[in-house]
Every structure is written in C-alpha cells, then in structure tokens.
Amino acid sequence: MTATSEDWGMNLRAQLKVPVLCMLLGFLTVYGLVVNGLLRLNTFRGPPGWQTSGALAFNLLVVGAIWGMSRIKPSPARAALLLFMLGFIALQPMGAVAAILGNLNANEFRGLGHWKTQGLILANALIFAGAIAGMVRAKPWRGMKPPDEPVSPSTRRTNLLFGISGLISVVAAVVVFVGARSNAGTNPLWSNTRNLSPVIAFAAIAIWLIALALAWWWYYSADEHERKANDVGFLVGGGLFMAVTPAWWIASRAGLLPPPDAMIIWYVSMVAMGIGWAWYRNR
Amino acid sequence: MNNRLKELRATRNWSQAELAVQLDVSRQAVNAIETGKHDPSLPLAFRIARLFNLSIEEIFDDGHK
Taking the CB of residue A33, how many other CB atoms lie within 10 A of it? Predict the structure, then answer.
C-alpha cells in the first residue's frame, strides 16, 4: 500500500518540527545570553554602549513586525513566528531586571536612581508593552493548528505541559546566567567558580524543580508512544551519562583530563536524551 | 508487527489525525503503529479493535499461524 500525499505531508511536518524548534530555541538562547551580557557589562556600569541601543532598536523592529503580522491570515506558521518573536522580546526586559539584581553590589553600578538606569527600564517596559499589545491584536492562538488536523485532548494536554516545562527550564537557566558574575574568559552559565548568590541559587533550584515536576506530570499523562519515545531518550541520555562520568573521573585521577564538570556531562546527556526522544517520536 | 490499520482507516476516509482523536493518542502514535514502528499495548489494541468492530487478530498479525 502506498502512502497518501496527506501522510507524506504530515510525516514531513513532523520531521521538520523538532529541528526547527531546536534551531529557534537555540537562536533565542544565544540572543538572550548576548543581550544579558551587554546589559550587565555595558549598560548598567560603564558608559552606554552602542550595542545596547542597537539591541533596543532591533527589538523595536521586532515589535513592528508583530504588529505587521496582525494583517496576515492566521496559520500555524504565523502563530509559531509570533510566539517566537514574543519570546525574543521578553528576553530583554527579563535580562534587564536580572542584570540590575546581579549588579546591585557591583562598585561600577550606576544605581537605580540614575536617569540612564531608569531610562533603560522604561524603554524595556515600553517595548514589552508594545509587543503584548501587538500580540493581543494579532491573536496568534487563532492559527495554532490547521482546521484539518484535529488533536486529541490528551495530546493537547501533554503538548501544553511539555511547552510550559521547557519554558520554565529556560527561565531557570536565564536566572543562573544573569545571576552569575561573569569574569573575563569564563562562561557564567557553566562556570564552577562560586559566584552565585544564595538567593539566585534558591530561585533557580525552585524553578528547576517545578519544571521537573511538570515533566513527570507530562510523562504520566502522555500516550504510550510518547512515553516510549521518552524511555528511549532516557536510555540514550542515561547511558551516555553512565559511560562518560566514571571514564572522565578515572582519566582525571590519572592526570589525563581536568576534574569532571558535572554540568557539561549533564548538558551533553540532556542533548543526547532529546535526540533519542525525537528520533523515536518522529522516525 | 503487521497490521491493517492504514487500510481500515482508508475505508472510513479518516486522516491519521482524525483516527488519533478517536483513540485519544497523538498523530505520531497512529503513524508509528501503521508503519509497524510501534507495537500498541493490549489496552490500545483493544480500543482500535472496538473502534473498527473487529477482533484484535483481524487487525494485527504477529506472523505466527
């Protein structure tokens, strides 16, 4: 029996969904890290940098694009693009708040009363408000799924839980990143130096545990195919973790490698887990 | 495991997504079962059989006579 064109189209969409989503999230994360770095290092301490003004101007363009997209016919692609752009815009105000918190004790910090600090906060608030207003006008939820592709209630619930869990995990990473003082030549997110305040640490741990709880809820409410895909992902990621951790530790004891970095191994294992899950789910 | 799910779905003129809604699973799950990449659990096999008013053996074939 040959596959219908509808099936081919669905398979192609399913295969493209994960890599496209990964690319968008990756881009969003890199942008967030860059903007947060600029805010902390250039804007709230030294003289205002042209990079920060450029980032604000770029966000203004994105707000304009959101408003412009309200004229386009609703579709899943339009909905995805609108939500991506909202995430894009949301990173800068989040970064500004976190950068202020992270800079409060820094000697170079201008202070909350300085007009440049207040101006930047106001600019971020206005941009974010403009983006929200554009979203309300564009109504991205109208094109969330095509009318010819119904979704079962359990799938809708698990997709929502998965999305919320992923979003909260990103927030936890952003909190850790912006809460860390970056020293030249070190990556604040993966650094092993003791540069996190207890408040930031508690916040990040709490957010992460909430994300994990949601992920477990997602697992037990997903259908059997989704659960199997998750099991395969765990097998791949867990297997990698169990193989790499002791090998690195032993190599370190023999002086062949530096001491094992738990977060690097965890991150690579998570990526491997995601690949295993996506392979089984969309093959 | 071989199965007639795609053929049965075609007789009802359902898309994979429509069948997925009937079974309360994702469209990817239906696609994986149809292509033999995922063997359904016994409860899901029963749901499929009831939906088409057939027995499990009439839909799924494990290759043993």
Answer: 19
Q: If phi over 0 gives left and psi between -120 and 50 gives alpha, with beta otherwise, what is residue A41? A: alpha
**Same domain, yes or no, for A183 and A261?**
no
| A267 lies in the same domain as A180 | no
Residue A17 burial by CB count (10 A; 0-12/13-18/19+): exposed, middle or buried? Answer: middle
Instruction: Classify residue A6: in a domain, yes or no.
Output: no
DSSP class of B15: -
Nearest chain A residue to B24 by CA: give it.
A152
Backbone angles phi, psi at A262, to 5 degrees: -60, -40
Q: Where are the beta strands (DSSP E) in A50-208?
A: none
Q: What is the mean pLDDT of chain A?
A: 75
Q: Determine contact, residues A88/A31, Cβ cutoff 8 Å.
A: yes
**Interchain pair A150, B18: CB under 8 A:** yes
| pLDDT level of residue A64 (50, 70, 90 thresholds) | confident
Whether residue A118 lies inside any domain: the answer is yes
Chain B residues with CB under 8 Å of A224 CB are 25, 29, 40-41, 44
Pick from A4-8, A42-46, A54-58, B4-8 the range whose average pLDDT is largest: B4-8
Would you give the DSSP letter of residue A74?
A: P
Q: Give the integer Cα–Cα distance in Å for A270 and A91.
A: 23
User: How confident is the model at residue A184, as a pLDDT?
Assistant: 46
Whether residue A141 is found in the same domain as residue A255? no
Please tell me the predicted confidence (pLDDT) of residue A3: 45
Place B45 in a pLDDT band, splitting at 50, 70 and 90. very high
Binary contact (B29, A11; C-beta < 8 A) = no
For residue A241, the one-letter residue type is F
Strand-pairing partners, residue B3, are B60
- Name the residue facing A6 among B15, B20, B40 (closest C-beta): B15
